[in-house]
Design brief:
Elements (H helix, E strand, L loop, with lengths): L10 H4 L14 H14 L1 H18 L1 H24 L1 H9 L1 H19 L2 H21 L4 H11 L6 H8 L4 H15 L1
Helix pairs in contact: 2-7, 2-8, 3-4, 3-7, 4-5, 4-6, 4-7, 5-6, 6-7
Length: 188
């Protein structure tokens, strides 16, 4: 199946009034994780635009350090994904605590970048866009269109770049399993 780029959502949908934002339920981690994954899939092109703007500004101010920082983060991410697919203990950690897994990747990247170059480039150019995405995805309430798009992504009708990243982090298997259970219940 070929990868499709998700459409750019209207900015008034991306940043609506305060009535469409709410604090997540910190007691129900599964529900919070579902909200974050859903919003990451639905607003992925908007997040890419915001991240590209921040990376462009930082890259313009410090191009070599930004290139080093980006390369280190990508290599560390790919390394951790590869190791987690080959080691059961890391696979379980990634599956149960996806945020911790991302924090481990970012901390590892931070220490490598502090050894190689400018830490502020890492903090502003790489961590800030990720933090902005996570905060928005955590606070933004989902709507019907969001849920429908995510179901299509989850059952494999569409494949997007964020879907591929979330698959690497093993955050979409639960959605597929839930949908399969639902379809089996309907058949019965």
């Amino acid at each position: 199946m070929e990868v499709q780029v998700a459409p750019l959502r209207a900015w008034d949908d991306f940043f609506p009034g305060s009535d469409r934002f709410a604090r997540p339920d910190f007691k129900d981690i599964s529900k919070w994780n579902n909200r974050v994954v859903s919003n990451l899939l639905y607003y992925q092109t908007n997040y890419l635009m915001v991240a590209a703007a921040v990376v462009s500004i930082v890259g313009f101010l410090s191009p070599l350090n930004m290139l080093i920082g980006g390369t280190v983060v990508v290599l560390v991410f790919l390394g951790f994904v590869w190791v987690s697919h080959n080691k059961d203990i890391l696979r379980k950690l990634k599956k149960q605590y996806p945020t911790s897994f991302v924090v481990i990747i970012m901390l590892s990247s931070y220490f490598l970048i502090s050894y190689l170059g400018d830490v502020m480039v890492f903090m502003i150019g790489i961590t800030l866009p990720l933090l902005l995405m996570f905060v928005h995805a955590s606070l933004r309430l989902r709507n019907i269109k969001n849920k429908l798009e995510n179901k299509m992504e989850g059952i494999g009708l569409k494949k997007t770049p964020m879907g591929i990243i979330l698959d690497a982090l093993e955050q979409q298997e639960d959605n597929i399993n839930k949908l399969a259970d639902y379809i089996n219940k309907v058949k019965e």
